[in-house]
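so i finally got all the pieces together for this one. its two components total, 844 residues if u count the protein bits. some of the lines might not be protein, just check the labels. i wanna see the whole assembly predicted at once instead of chain by chain like last time, that was a mess tbh
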Amino acid sequence: MKPILLKNIILNGSLSDIFVCDGLISKISKAGQEVPAIDSGVEVMDCSGKTAFPGFINMHTHSAMAMMRGVQEDTALHDWLAKIWGMEAKITPDYIYWASKVAALEMIKTGTTTFYDQYWFSPTTRKAAMELGINPCVTYVVLDRHDKEAAAFQKDECEQYYEMSKSWKEDSAFGISIHAIYSVSEPMILWATEYARKRNLLIHIHVSETLKEVEDCKAAHGGLTPVEYLDRLGVLGPDVIAAHSLWLSDSDIQLLGERKVNCVHNVNSNLKLASGYMFKYQELSDAGVNICLGTDGSASSNNLDMLEAMKTSALLQKVWRNNPEAWPLEELAASATSNGAKALRLNTGVLEVGKRADILIVDTDNTFFLSPAPFLANFVYSAHSDCIDSVICGGRIVMKNRVVHGEKEILENARKIMNDLN
Amino acid sequence: MKPILLKNIILNGSLSDIFVCDGLISKISKAGQEVPAIDSGVEVMDCSGKTAFPGFINMHTHSAMAMMRGVQEDTALHDWLAKIWGMEAKITPDYIYWASKVAALEMIKTGTTTFYDQYWFSPTTRKAAMELGINPCVTYVVLDRHDKEAAAFQKDECEQYYEMSKSWKEDSAFGISIHAIYSVSEPMILWATEYARKRNLLIHIHVSETLKEVEDCKAAHGGLTPVEYLDRLGVLGPDVIAAHSLWLSDSDIQLLGERKVNCVHNVNSNLKLASGYMFKYQELSDAGVNICLGTDGSASSNNLDMLEAMKTSALLQKVWRNNPEAWPLEELAASATSNGAKALRLNTGVLEVGKRADILIVDTDNTFFLSPAPFLANFVYSAHSDCIDSVICGGRIVMKNRVVHGEKEILENARKIMNDLN
C-alpha cells in the first residue's frame, strides 16, 4: 500500500499535512512545517482549499437493496412490501454482487467509508464492497418467521458464515442479525444471542421501529415492550446495535442506557414509511446510550447518503422538540462517525494519529461554503455530498476528484442484471 | 438568441427531440423522426441517456441572504435574529449584488430557473440574476415596523421601484411584499394592497408562520387569525402569494381556498427554526388553494435547493399524517414547477410547445437512477441536484455539463466582499 501525503489540508480549522502509511494516519503536522522525506513511492495530494473530515459510518443499511429503490412509491407499507418481496424472491448471488457494488459506489461518492449491513448473501456483499475499497461490516441474518425448518437451516448456514468470517481481516466486524422480535421465534432469538456472545460477535436487531411492533409485543408478552421483552431474554448489552429504537417508553430508555446498547436512528426511512418521527435523542443520550446514524436500505429511504441523514435528523429533532438547539452539530457529527466506530469496536471515526485512515477530502470552493460560518454548519446544513472531492478508506484512495475506479463497468453490469431480473 | 436542438432526450418517458427558438419551446417530436433544417446557427446538444424536466420555480426566498447562512446555528430564534440583523445593518448594494450572484449561481446549479424574491435592493438582485440568465421575480419590501417615518419613506421608494419596473420585460413579474402583519402597520398594509391592486402587481406576504404570530394576532384583533384579519382588510385574493401558511384553522383553509390565494410551503426553514411541521397539504389542496414550494432564504434553511425541498416536504407530510400516500409525486412536482408559474402568471412550468424554454437536462447515468422505478421517484427521493447536467432558461443555456459561465469570478468576488463586511 502506497503511503499518502495530504498537503495543505484544513483539519479542525488548522492548515495541516496529514501522512497516511500502512492504512493508518501516521502523522499530522502544521502545513509546511515539517517536510518528511518524500520518495517517488509516496502519493502526494495537494489539498489546498480543502477540508478533512472523518469518513461516515452508516450503522444500519441493507445495501443490496440499492436496485429496488423507488419501485413502489407513495403507497402503504403492505403494497410496498408485496412489491419488494416479489423482487427478493428472484434475487441471486449475482444480483447481490452487482447491487452491492452499486451500493458501495454510492456510499463512497457520498462519503461513507464503513457500513454495517443486514441482508442476504452477506459474504457476497462483503466481497463487492472490498473490491471497491470500502470497509464492510456484514452480518448473518436470522429470520425464521417462526418456522422450525427455517430455523434449523439458518443455524447451519450461520455456522458456515461464521467459519468463513474467521479468515476475514480483523477490522471488518462480523455480526449476527436477529431481524426483529416479530419475525424471529423466541428460541431462535435465544440461540442467536448465545451463539454471538460465545464468539464475541456483534448483535444487530430492529427494535421498536413502529407503534404496531410495540403494541403487538405488549399483547403477546404480558404487557412487555420490545425493549423489556428483549431484556427479559437476556439479549440487551453493549454488543447490541438496535436499529430504529423509535417508539420507546421512559423505562425503555433507562434500560437501554443501563445495558449500554447502541441505537441507530434512520430518519429518512422512518419518515417515508410513516413509522414516526419522535426519536428521543436527548433522553437516550442522557441515559448513556451510544447514538449512531444510518440510512436504512435504499428501498425505503431512498439513498445511502449520510450527509442527508445528518441534516434531516437534526431538522426533525429541532421541530418536534420545538427547540432549535436540539441535536447540536458536534454531537450530530459524532453520531455519523466516532459513535459508529465505538459500536463496531473499530479503530476509526476520528482523524488522529494511529487511527485507521478513513478520510473525506471536502471541496469548499462552491456557493454552499460561502459564508463566515464554521465548516461543520455549512457541510451539514447547506452542502450536498457532491462537495466530497476525494475519499481515503483504510489508507487507500477509493475516490479521487469524484472518480471511482470502475464506475462505468459497475453501472453497465448492474443495469444488465436488473433487466434480467424484471 | 441561438436556437437549440435537444436531441434524443427522454420527455415524459418517450425519446424526443426538443426544439427551442426565441426563448420558447417551438417543437417537440419523436426522436429522429423529423429532422429540421439545421444550419450552423443552431446549437445541437446530444442528450442521449438524459431526461428533460421543467425548471424549478422557487416561490419564496430571500436570495441575497446566501452569504449569511450558518453564521449562528443550533440556537434559538432571537439569538439567530440578533446575528442576522447585525449583518444586515452593514449590507450595501455591492454586497447585495455579489450575494445575489452567489444565490443565482446556486439556484442554477440546483435546477431553479425562476425565483420569487423578497429582500432589500431588489433591482440589484434582479440585475445580478439576469446576468446569469435565471428569471428573477422581485418585489419591493414594505416593512415599516409601525413607524410613520419609515412608512412615508417606503411609499416613496416603492413608487421609484415601480417606475423602474415598467421597463422590465413582461415575463419577470414585479410584486409588492408586505412583510408580515406583525412587522407592517395596518395603514401600510392597506396602502400597499391598494397600490399593488391598482397596478395589477402581485402581493407577497408571510402568513401564519409561527404559532406566536397567530396567538399575537388573536390577542390584538379580537380573536381573528392572521388569515381572517387579512381578509377583513381586503388583502386576500388570487394575486396574493402567502409564504408559510403553516398554522391554519379549518376556517382559515376554507377562506384561503375561497379567495384563491397561493400558498408557499418552506419545509426546511419551518423545521430548522422549529416553526412547525404540520403543513395541511391535503386540506389546502381540497379547498382549492394553489400550493407551491420555496426554500426560504438560505440563512434559515440553509440552501436554495428545490429538489431537497421537494423530498423533505413529501417525507414530512407522510410521517405527520401517518400516511405514506400523502403528497404523491406528481402533485409534488407540480408544486415545484407549474403551480409556481400559475401564481406568478408566467408562461412556463411545463414542457409543452409554446411555453418558455425553462428546461433541466438530467443525467441518469449514476447509482441513484439504477432501479426499475419511474424517473420522478428516483429524481425526488434518491438523487441529488448534482444530477442536473445542464439548464436552459428562457431559451438560453445557463449551465452546460455542470459549468456556469463566470462561476470562479463570482466566488472570488463574493469572498472578497464578505470579508470586507465582517
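Residues 171 and 346 of chain B are 6 Å apart (CA to CA).
The first strand of chain B starts at residue 4 and ends at 11.
anyway lmk what u think
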